[in-house]
Amino acid sequence: MTRHMTCATQPVSPATKQMFSRILTSALFAGAAAGLIAALLQLVFVQPVLLHAELYESGELVHFGGEAVTAHPELPGMFSELTRDALSVIFTMLTYTGYALVLVALMSVAEGQGHKIDGRTGVLWGLAGFIAVHFAPGFSLAPEVPGVAAADVYARQIWWFATVAAAAVAMWLIAFGGNIISYVIAAALLVAPHLIGAPEPDVFTGPVPTEIGALFAARAFGIGLVAWVLVGAFAGYFWQSEGKRAEAAA
Amino acid sequence: MTTQTQTASAAKTGFLPVMFAVVLGLGIITLTGHVQASGLHDAAHDVRHATGFPCH
Predict the structure, then answer these.
(1) Closest to B46 (Cβ–Cβ): which among A84, A109, A144?
(2) What is residue B3's predicted lDDT score, i.e. its pLDDT?
(3) Complex ipTM > 0.95
C-alpha cells in the first residue's frame, strides 16, 4: 500500500511527457483536419438529404397520401442556418479528434511492436477504423435519417459500443494476428453482433420516403469512409513527423 | 537484468500516455455522440445522424 502510494506521487518522467505530447499533437492535427473536411463534405452531401427528411418528419410533406409529392421541394440553402451548421462543424471536428486520439494511441503501440507507421500505412488504419466504427455497427443499425422508427436509444447505444469494440479487436487481429486462429476469432467477432441482432423497433412509424432513407445511409457511409481514410493518413503522417521533430529537438 | 529494467521502463513510458489518450478519446466520442442531455443532443444532432450514431 505504502509502496503503491509512493509510486503514484512520483513525478512523470520526461520520456512519458514527450510520448504524451507526441500522441496529443498528432491526434489534434489529424482529427481537426480530417474533421473539418468531413464536416464540409457532410454539409454539401448529407445535410440536404437530412433537411429533406425533416420536412417529412415534421409533417410538412406527406408521401403516402393520394397525391404525388415532388422529390425536389424547396430546401433551405447551404449555410442558411449558420449556428446549426457551425455547431455541426465543431462537433464533427471534436468527434474525429476523439477517434484520432484512440487511433494514434494504438498506432504508438503497434510501432512499439515493430510495425511501420506513416501516412501510407495510415490509410489502412483509417480503413480499419471505418469498418470498426462506422460500417460494422451500421451493417445492422443503418445510419438513421431523422424520423425513422427505432428501438430504445440506450439499448441501441449499448449494442453500438459492443459491436464497435468487437469489430475493433477483430481489425487488430486481422492486421497483427498473423495466424489462422486469430483470423477465425476475428471473423466470429465481426459476425456475432449481427447474429445476436441489433435492437429493432416494434412497429414501423417512419414517415420519410425510403428513397431518402437509402440515399442518406449511402451518403453517411461514403463520407464516413473518406473521413476515416483521411484521419488515418493524417494520423500516420503527423505521428511520423512529430517523432522526427522531437528527435531533432533532443 | 538491465534489459528487463529497460523493457519495463519503455513499457511504462508508453502505457500511461496510451491509456490517457484512449480514455480522453473515448470520453470525447461519448460526449459528442452519445450523451442524451438535451442541449448536447440538439447541438450535435445533425452530426450524430450523419456519423451513424444512434441519435433519438
Answers:
(1) A84
(2) 46
(3) no
Question: Of the given ranges (A2-6, A191-195, A226-230), which has the lowest mean pLDDT?
Answer: A2-6
- Within 196-235 of A, beta carbons closer than 8 Å to B belong to 216, 220-221, 223-224
Q: How far is the C-alpha of B50 from the C-alpha of A212, rounded, in Å?
A: 13
Contacts of A153 in chain B (CB under 8 A): 36, 54-56
Q: Answer whether residue A50 is part of any domain.
A: yes
Residues A97 and A35 sit within 8 Å (Cβ to Cβ): yes
What are A113-153's pLDDT values in tens digits? 999 999 999 999 999 999 999 999 999 999 999 888 889 99
Task: Please state, as a whole number, how many other Cβ atoms lie within 10 Å of the Cβ of residue A133.
Answer: 26
pLDDT (mean) for A196-216: 92
Residue that wins the pLDDT comparison between A238 and A60: A238
Q: Which residue has the cell 467477432?
A: A189
Domain count, chain A: 1
Does A142 reside within a domain?
yes
CB contacts, 8 Å: B40 with chain A = none
Q: Is residue A68 part of a domain?
A: yes
Do A160 and B18 count as a contact with CB atoms less than 8 A apart? no
Residue B1: pLDDT above 50? no
Residue-averaged pLDDT of chain B: 81
Q: Which three cell numbers stand for residue A127?
A: 480503413
Question: A112-119 contacts: CB < 8 A, separation 24 or more?
Answer: A112/B10, A112/B14, A113/A176, A115/A176, A117/A236, A117/A239, A117/A240, A118/A236, A118/A237, A118/A239, A118/A240, A119/A233, A119/A234, A119/A236, A119/A237, A119/A240
Which of A24, A109, A137 comes nearest B14 by C-beta?
A109
Quote the minimal CA–CA distance from A93 to chain B in Å: 10
Q: What is the mean pLDDT of residues A38-66?
A: 90
Quote the domain boundaries for residue A227: 25-249
Q: A12 in a domain, yes or no?
A: no
- More confidently predicted of B9 and A247: A247
